[in-house]
Specification:
The structure is a single chain. The chain has 195 residues and is mostly helical. It has a domain at 18-46 and 95-181. It contains eight helices and no strands.
């Protein structure tokens, strides 16, 4: 590269279009607020989209079962295809049940993991301090109990938390847009970037 030249990509990162950043930030903030205001709808839409993916996957797996050369491969692809279609059916036509079931399974996984962490804390070589192992176990057990006993509320809470992250990302983009609007010297820690 010739001295004094800048790549287009370099300019894009060092001199961002503040208006585009502002639009992206405001859009993300609006979406984040919408997800937080309507977490149940957001969750259902997400589950339905996963159902559409499972439907396509199930059809593909059944097609692979038909084309498979051996009986074992036919059986495996066929079984996986049928399971994917069952999952798709529940996700598309019963998204609330599907979301609750996934949260419930995650809850049991956290409970089992927490129990094993308690035993590991009493064991020999942990690779971490005993109190960290107990803390990790306590968090997993608490979340596992919450997920298993209240899957619907947990799913709604996770959806709300996802919306909060989107909102925070949008706020960060708006802030970056305002900083970029002042000029490149404010974007890169006080140094002026010559193009």
């Amino acid at each position: 590269m010739v001295a004094g030249t800048t790549t287009t990509l370099g300019v894009a990162f060092t001199r961002p279009d503040w208006k585009a950043l502002l639009v992206r930030g405001l859009a993300a903030a609006a979406i984040g607020i919408a997800v937080m205001v309507w977490p149940d709808i957001t969750l259902k839409v997400l589950v339905i989209l996963v159902g559409v993916w499972a439907l396509a996957d199930g059809i593909g797996l059944l097609a692979a079962a038909i084309r498979a050369p051996s009986g074992a491969a036919k059986g495996l692809f066929g079984l996986l295809g049928v399971l994917a279609l069952i999952a798709a059916f529940f996700c598309i036509f019963r998204p609330g049940v599907a979301a609750s079931t996934v949260i419930w399974v995650i809850g049991f996984w956290l409970l089992i993991r927490g129990i094993f962490e308690v035993f590991a804390a009493f064991g020999g070589s942990l690779g971490m301090s005993r109190w960290l192992a107990f803390l990790s176990a306590a968090v997993d057990l608490a979340l596992g109990i919450l997920f298993v006993t209240h899957p619907d509320k947990t799913a709604t809470g996770l959806s709300w938390l996802f919306g909060l992250f989107i909102l925070m990302g949008g706020a960060l983009l708006v802030w970056l847009a305002l900083v970029a609007r002042k000029g490149p010297s404010d974007v890169v820690a006080g140094t002026v970037i010559e193009g």
